[in-house]
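so my prof wants the structure for this chain in the tokens format not the other one, which i didnt know existed until like an hour ago. anyway here's the sequence
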Amino acid sequence: MAPTRPGKSQLAKLARAHKPGTRQQTPRKEDYVEIIYELIREKGYAKPVDIAKHLHVRPPTVTGMLDRLHSEQLILHEKYGGITLTAEGENMARAFGERHALLVAFLKLFGVEETTAQKDTEGLEHYIDSRTLDLLARFVKYVNLNPPWWSQFRKQAKT
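here's what i got, hopefully its the right format
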């Protein structure tokens, strides 16, 4: 039996999906800004050792990224001192946090456990299009405003 080949239209769709976007930030850079923001919120400060611990990387890796974030004016970092976000870095971190929370809320609507929703969100959040996020936000809001509708949908989906 000959292998089934996707049609040209499917191949074209795949090619478009894999085309690099015009993203300003890399997923790793986003992770650093997000972790720094959360460390400051929870502890009042962020130190390279804490960043390394939370991102599961070695301290020299953190140092390299901190230099990069500093050169891009996203953080202020004094050698052997604490790290603070610039206004631009803080705005970016807040946007990342909102995006993260939205995706977690969306997944939890479908009964995904918190731990799994957090892990899955890490895979989704860096690559999802802003228009898709807007639509998801509208959907989550609609579900929260219409619990009877969502309950009926969930019952229907189980059958």
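also thought this was worth mentioning. The domain at 91-158 is CATH 1.10.60.10 (Diphtheria Toxin Repressor; domain 2).
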